[in-house]
Design goal:
Blueprint: E1 31-35, E2 44-52, E3 55-61, E4 72-77, E5 86-88, H1 91-101, E6 104-109, E7 140-142, E8 145-153, E9 156-163, H2 166-175, H3 184-193, E10 197-203, H4 205-211, E11 219-224, E12 229-230, H5 233-237, E13 243-251, E14 256-258, E15 262-265, E16 270-272, H6 280-295, E17 299-307, H7 321-326, E18 341-349, E19 358-362, E20 369-370, E21 372-377, H8 386-410, H9 414-421
Parallel strand pairs: 2-13, 6-21, 15-17, 16-21
Antiparallel strand pairs: 1-6, 2-3, 3-11, 4-10, 5-11, 7-8, 8-9, 9-10, 12-19, 13-18, 14-19, 17-18, 17-20
Helix pairs in contact: 2-3, 8-9
């Protein structure tokens, strides 16, 4: 049986703009008609990092498919976590931030070039605790492995382990039913040398049946540490090909970025042909793949950066203080607290391209960015004025530019793009005198 995260529809927002017609897009208005959320990608893991100072809340959502008896999570943590520092969250808030920050396709309709038009555009989106054990140190588990704490939280049985060496830890995990693939030992040893502990979770089938959920809920942990990092190397040991990771980082200060990997912004604000409305998922997957290939799978792609307190416009309602709290933003809603800044990062990685764990830092950068792709519908009504005739003459060149842009972004064949657009090729270049002797 497949276990999938649930889907939540996004809300509808409204923005008004008054402007004079121009062949160029004059403002960020229009209709949102598509989004590129994490569900477009296979083997996609999602994490939320809420960080302020040395305090971190990490939310981990798995895309695990298969028998629940086979599920196990092993991740290094900087401290021995108490029972009340571990929580089982809900997928709805994570789905909300994924949908809110996803790259978008926005749709515009050209007005009559012979008239002055006041637009009143509606910005739309198509998708508008368990029994706890004591926090006492358990007896030595053998092989240099020590069980520092044992809990049941929601549907998960959780251990906090420390170890003297990776061989002993690997043997202990194997003997206790945790199957780690070949190649895990040197990665485990590097974490042991850093004096990190290991957070180990398995599904408690009895507790799982009591919850009534048909999917695995995200696990949340809270801790204080000057280390601000995301351990990704264990996930590459048994990976079959490149992995997709979506990081939604929350901070009251500003954008969060990596200090040991380069950040690249995804291509944005490109104009694409109208037929992409029905193929936006394929477009974005291929565009991201081409961007990742150009960077050699060695960059972290920024897909969204914005202050949650406002948007211009909103693809959906901003997350409420209650939803942000569910995602770990412990400062949200407190009197005098700064608004929450959200950073969405998309990482496609392998063990070779990301040989080290990702180290992050908070920055004071509150600049806005959104992955946005523009689809413009031509005006088809009567337009007999001089401006209307010039508008008609400009359309073939505009459509060719859209075709060339799409080919460059995705690597798709320019001929097949032109065929889908109903074009045979670029329009002939106008003679110089045609600029003077206009009809």
């Amino acid at each position: 049986m497949k276990w999938k995260r649930s889907l939540m529809a996004a809300a509808v927002a409204l923005a008004l703009a008054g402007l004079i017609y121009s062949p160029e897009i004059a403002a960020f208005c229009g209709f949102y008609v598509g989004r590129a959320d994490a569900r477009l990608f296979n083997r996609a893991s999602r994490v939320v990092l809420a960080r302020s100072g040395d305090r971190t809340v990490l939310t981990m959502a798995s895309d695990f498919e298969g028998p629940l008896t086979e599920f196990a999570l092993v991740t290094p943590v900087p401290v021995v976590l108490r029972r009340d520092q571990i929580h089982v969250g809900e997928s709805a808030a994570l789905d909300r931030i994924d949908a809110f920050t996803a790259p978008r396709l926005v749709e515009y309709f050209d007005g009559n070039p012979c008239e002055t038009i006041s637009y009143h555009d509606v910005v739309r989106s198509q998708n508008a605790e368990g029994v706890g054990g004591g926090n006492r140190v358990q007896p030595t588990a053998g092989q240099g492995v020590r069980i520092e704490a044992r809990y049941t939280v929601g549907e998960y049985d959780i251990l906090i382990l420390s170890a003297e060496d990776s061989g002993g830890l690997l043997s202990w995990l194997s003997q206790n039913g945790y199957r780690l693939p070949p190649g895990a030992e040197p990665v485990l040893q590097s974490y042991i040398r850093q004096n990190l502990r290991f957070f180990v979770a398995r599904v408690n089938l009895e507790e799982q049946s009591r919850t009534g959920y048909r999917y695995l809920r995200p696990i949340q942990i809270a801790f204080e540490s000057p280390r601000f990092m995301l351990p990704v190397r264990l996930g590459t040991v048994n990976a079959n090909g490149a992995q997709e990771l979506f990081v939604y980082a929350l901070s009251p200060r500003g954008r969060i970025e990596s200090v040991n990997y380069r950040t690249a912004r995804i291509p944005s604000d490109a104009q694409v042909p109208e037929y992409i409305k029905d193929e936006f998922a394929n477009f974005y997957r291929d565009m991201f793949t081409r961007s990742a290939e150009r960077e050699g799978l060695s960059a972290i792609f920024l897909e969204y950066a914005w202050d949650m307190g406002w948007c211009d416009p909103c693809a959906a309602d901003p997350l409420s203080a209650s939803e942000l709290l569910q995602l770990g933003a412990f400062w949200a809603g407190t009197p005098g607290a700064a608004s929450t800044f959200v950073t969405r990062m998309h990482i496609r990685y392998t063990g070779e391209s990301f040989p080290s764990d990702i180290v992050f830092q908070e920055t004071s950068d509150r600049g806005n960015f959104q992955g946005r792709y523009i689809m413009r519908h031509a005006y088809n009504g009567p337009a007999e004025c001089a401006a209307g005739k010039e508008y008609r003459r400009s359309l073939p060149a505009r459509h060719e530019q859209e075709a060339q842009s799409l080919a460059a972004l995705t690597g798709w064949s320019i001929d097949s793009i032109r065929a889908r657009m109903g074009q045979n090729g670029p329009p002939p270049e106008r003679a110089w005198w045609q600029r003077v002797f206009q009809d």
